[in-house]
Design brief:
The protein has eight helices and four strands; from the N terminus they run βαβαββαααααα. 33% of the residues are buried. It has a four-stranded mixed beta sheet with strand order 2-1-3-4. By secondary structure, it is α+β, with helices and mostly antiparallel strands. It is globular, with a radius of gyration of 17 Å. It starts with a strand and ends in a 20-residue tail after the last helix. Helix 1 packs parallel to helix 3, helix 1 crosses helix 8 and helix 4 packs parallel to helix 6.
């Protein structure tokens, strides 16, 4: 029986979950809610809570008795499910740290995109500077390894890929001097299941909701 993933019809906070599902080759139902034209569809589903979610919200993931919300909980669950999580305490500590850094840089991106036009223009230089610095640090940590923990891909690599490509679309110079990260992006997109997904009509292109200044759904 197929699992169920639900989120807005954008990348947003849900895309790392979708990428993990695609990478793992999991058969899943992708419930997409159109926030611009049919937000009430989600409002009605949330009120009825047909999946029995303990904390009804988007994104959600249902796999039999496993009923999860919160994007971080879902990506970590999928990481454990598909051997893309830590194997010991030392790895867990490194992934916790890396995840925190990726979330910081991701947050600066989303905070900027949901500003007013004036706020976006005013905040862009500082956000780019901070994100470039953090990306260079991530680049140094990655070094010549294919993935952050070495030869084995983890859910944090997937989160990093999503964050990096969002920033690349907004301001490519955030990746200046970070050739290792650029290679990670290329390496991820070359994975057979990811390549197939990105070439399909199921691949989502809008990053943000319709009210965003950049990358908005239309």
């Amino acid at each position: 029986m197929a699992t169920v993933f639900g989120y807005w019809a954008i990348k947003g906070l849900g895309q790392p979950c979708r990428l993990l599902l695609e990478l793992a080759g999991e058969e899943y139902q992708d419930n997409r809610f159109d926030q611009l034209r049919a937000e009430d569809v989600w409002i009605q589903e949330k009120a009825k809570n047909p999946h029995g979610l303990p904390f009804p919200n988007l994104p959600y993931y249902v796999d039999g008795d496993q009923k999860l919300t919160q994007s971080s909980a879902i990506v970590r669950h999928l990481g454990r499910k598909y051997n893309m999580a830590a194997k010991n305490d030392a790895e867990a500590s490194q992934l916790d740290m890396l995840e925190g850094v990726v979330i910081d840089v991701r947050t600066w991106f989303f905070d900027l995109c949901y500003q007013t036009e004036e706020g976006f223009k005013a905040g862009l230089p500082e956000a780019v500077q901070r994100s470039t610095t953090y990306c260079q640090q991530l680049n140094a940590y990655l070094g010549s390894k294919p993935w952050f923990l070495g030869d084995r891909i983890t859910y944090v690599d997937v989160m990093a890929y999503d964050m990096l490509t969002n920033w690349r679309e907004l301001e490519p110079k955030v990746l200046d001097g970070s050739d290792n990260l650029k290679q990670l992006v290329d390496r991820f997109e070359a994975l057979p299941n990811i390549k197939k997904y990105m070439e399909s009509d199921r691949f989502i292109k809008p990053i943000n909701a319709h009210m965003a200044v950049f990358g908005a759904a239309k």
